[in-house]
Each structure stands twice: as structure tokens, then as C-alpha cells.
Amino acid sequence: MGLKSFGRRLWAVLDMIKVHHTIFALPFALLAMLWAARGWPSWRTFGWILLAMVAARSAAMTFNRIADRRYDVENPRTSRWPLSTGAVSLPFAWGFLAACVLLLLFAAWRLNPLCLALAPLALAVLLGYSLTKRFTVFCHLFLGFADGISAPGAWIAVTGTLHGSAPAWWLCGAMTTWIGGFDLLYALQDLAFDREKGLYSFPARYGVRPGLRLSTAAHLATVACLIAAGLGAGAGWLFYAGVAATLLLLLYEHSLVKPGDLSRLGKAFFTVNGYIAIGLFLVAAADLWMGKR
User: Fold this and answer.
1) What CATH number did the domain enclosing 268 receive?
2) Higher per-residue pLDDT: 155 or 11
3) Which pTM was predicted?
4) How far apart are CA 176 and CA 25, in angstroms?
5) Residue 161 structural domain
6) Could you report the per-residue pLDDT of 69-124, keeping only the tens digit for each?
7) Widest CA span of the chain, in angstroms?
8) How many folded domains does the chain comprise?
9) Which residues are registered as beta bridge partners of 258?
């Protein structure tokens, strides 16, 4: 394989796994990092955390595409994805997955012994998510938890211990319910297909309206977890102002998706959630900086 061909396939894989969606989970992990360090840690620590985050999500998403390949080929929404069309071969995808796993393990080793010891457990959760749609309607929340463990992971990366990590675990809860909540909305696109194939999507099993109600409940739980995280971290008023703004954005997100109208689902999923992730991190960082003045 020539360098140019390798580059095309690598770009196709990165597009296939939506590597830019790392922006959803990364700010929460970085917030846990800031709270653990009570400020900005060393650039070395930040660099290895960033590499671990990108490698972990890339591994999880690549395995998801491999595990769901037989469904993706048949699903009209996913039939044009690179692995479905053959633009990316299965051996290349497996090779990329292996490289991501090795990068994650290497970054964990460079951070501290506890990170390395827990890395296989984290990988089991990250890769295991892709199989949950075969047996549980709560696969959406499992996805959120798989992303959410990045917060305690970042805490351990900074401190080398789980001692005092309650704020990071509350952030994990916030990510579990936030990502799980908007994955419930995203799953509405595949409702008919999931029913046909017997997959355990919550909306496919119980209908659109129950799915919307569970998504709303999950996002209310997100706000509660964020408040608890702030209390545990000793956050100031600016952080809670950010939480209030997050609540308003989540309410707006739900106003965009109606039982009979999914035309604005893309705006709800990508645009609003991007604002939530980045905005809350920036506000929390500013709050921490003000508290140290």
C-alpha cells in the first residue's frame, strides 16, 4: 500500500468514526483534570491525557463500526459509510483499532501506574458498549457511561489516586445521562430498522414518546449531577451560572425534536451539544481561575 493510498484510508477511517465528535466528551474530562490539579497541570500530563482520550474514543468507535458492520450495510442511513461500501477494508479497520489500543496503553503507562492498571478495564467498557444493543434497551446510557469514565480517568491521570475523586464521578454521572439522553434522540432515526432487526434501542422497543420522555428525564439528571459535581469541587457562582445555561440549552434541544418531526435532529444533536460541552468547560475554567485570584 502506497503512502497516498494509506492516507486516503486513514482519512476515511477518521471520518467514519467521526473523530471530531471527541469534542463532546473531552471538555468534561479536561474539567475533571482542572479540578484535580486545582488549576492547569503540567503540559506533559495534559498531552498524555489528550492522547489517551482521542485514542480511547477512536478505538471504541472503530470497534463499534466493525461490530455493527452487518447492520450498517443494510441500514439506509449507514450504508454509505466507508466500512459498509468497502472504501475501508476490514483488515485496515482492525489495524487502526489495534494502533489506537496501543496508543491508549502507552499514554496510560506514561501517566502513572494506576492509569496503566485500570486501562484494560476502561477498554472493556469502551469496546463492550458496541454489543449492548443486542441485549439491553439501556444501551444508550451504557454509551454515556463509556464516555463518562474519562472524567475519573483524567482525575487519576493528574493525582495517581482515586482519593477525593467524587467530583469526577459526578461528572461521569452527568456525561452518562447527557450523552445517553441525546443518543436516545439520535436513535429515533433508526427506529424502524432496529425493530426489523430486533435490536434493543429503547425507542424501538417502547416507542417515540417514551423515548423522548426518558431523554428528558436523563437530561434533568444531568443538571442534578453537574450541581453535585460543583458542590464537591467547591465551584463558585460562575460554574452554576454555566449549569443554568446548560439547562436552558437542553430544554431548547428538546424543543427541536417532536414525535412526528425529526427534521431538526441534526441541529439538536451536533450544534446544541457542542455549545454545551465547550461552553460549560470554559465557564468552569473561568470560575476556577476567579476562585484562585
Assistant:
1) 1.10.357.140
2) 155
3) 0.91
4) 10
5) 3-292
6) 999 999 988 888 888 888 888 998 999 999 999 999 999 999 999 999 999 999 99
7) 58
8) 1
9) 261
| Cell numbers given for 3 | 503512502
pLDDT in tens, 155-191: 999 999 999 999 999 999 999 999 999 899 888 888 8
Determine the Cα–Cα distance for residues 123 and 116; give it in Å rounded to an integer.
11
Cell numbers standing for residue 261: 418531526
Least confident of 1-15, 119-133, 163-177, 192-206: 1-15
Return the C-alpha cell found at 10. Answer: 486513514
Q: Which three cell numbers, joined as nine digits, stand for 28?
A: 468534561
Q: Which position has the higher pLDDT, 87 or 266?
A: 87
